[in-house]
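2024-03-11 09:14:02 DEBUG pipeline.ingest accepted 1 chain
2024-03-11 09:14:02 DEBUG pipeline.ingest length=490
2024-03-11 09:14:03 DEBUG pipeline.predict start
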Amino acid sequence: MATFELRQNLKLSQQLIMTPQLQQAIKLLQLSRLELVDMIAQEMEENPLLEEISQDEYPEDKAVVQTEEIPSDEDADYKAHEHTEELTGEGDGKAEFDWDNYLEDYVTQGPVYSRKDGEAPNWENMLTKKASLTDHLMWQLTLSRFSEDEFKVGEQIIGNLDQNGYLNATLEEIAEQVKLDVVFVEMVLGKVQDFDPSGVAARNLQECLLIQNRTMGESNPLVEAIIRDHLKDLEVKNYNYISRKLKVSIQDVLDAVLLISVMDPRPGSIYNDESAQSIIPDVFVFKSGDEYKVVLNEDGFPRLRISNFYKEMMGNARSGASRSEDAGRKYIREKVQSATWLIKGIQQRQKTIFRITESIVRFQKDFFDKGIQYLKPLVLRDIADDVEMHESTISRVVTNKYMYSPRGIFELKYFFSSSIQKTSGDTIASKSVKDSIRKIIGGENPKKPHSDSEIVDILKASGISIARRTVAKYREMMGILPSSRRKKYF
């Protein structure tokens, strides 16, 4: 008969635990500037104890947990952040909060005034938006003399256009949706293709260019023949073959190609909602004498503190008859702890970005002094060893963070690149080689562009020895066409 015995054993082991504070710190590090501002706004909505302090109040407020002030670049004696420890998330974050010291140190905020309703216009009356391609086409459809069935088909056609103005659905699919004949749908499609912008509602590039040729005035037969029968030859600039096949002179072909080159292959793109976004740098790099100073960009960052309203609430609770921790006091305690970790996490994030940027500037000083040809090979391990942090931390910091410098605005990731061995035995950054290739191609004769093999020879003459396939790879990465397609005839 089996017997069971209950025993107690003491076992010592090590475990790696991701505390909530460490998870939050890692999340803050990898956020871009705009994402961080959005996150702060969301936290302020969810945590009633967090509030933003104005710039006027900031110097006198003692309760704000802030990053260290960064002086201007004229302050040559400044020595920032002697040593910033990497975020480890040690501790469980459940330490008792010192309410007495917090309440005594907090300066009472003055009265808060809010505007009365009606004093300012409603924001909804001030908003506007750019007309979309769909809006522009529907406006034309409404003003056209279409029958009810034609209008119904026109709506379906416009609703199935992509952002470049091409028709995504087949005529059979549209006919099935509106319960009408395919021939009728094709007739309506022809009418919609006469709308502005020219070439819209085409089913492919060939049809798009043919529509634009038709709407240019008098349709050019040679242009139409090239688009209809020799679009592939046009792509590879095989003009001699087109000339022989169509039995016209090479000059006539070049004149026709010149007309085709002014056509728009993406007629709907001008109505895209996408617009260029300005980059707000996370750090500024200024030159002061022979040195470079790093300054954090704090503009636009909300300065956070714990709400004065809850300070008064806790003060009233403390003066009450009972000092037992009720549910409300526990809730406030948790929110204070969460707010404190967020403020400290933002502070640590800024310090970490500062130190890593300083290290990058030290490694790449020649680049800032002389230009991209002096960009040094740099890997994450080099910076990690310099600032005594893990490579994963460096990777998170340099992603989606931007630097303003005398050389322009760069993503911090830009300064990292692999090395290529020169014939002299020195190394050069791959980005410098790409820039050399770009300059060689930029200075070539457009009627006789350099082949990849010729570029290899030119680079070898300057001490850079790389293979032809490497030149081709770098050229493709920069979006530069091969020599056969770069050749210009006019």
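2024-03-11 09:14:41 DEBUG pipeline.report Residues 420-490 form a domain with the Arc Repressor Mutant, subunit A fold (CATH 1.10.10.60).
2024-03-11 09:14:41 DEBUG pipeline.predict end
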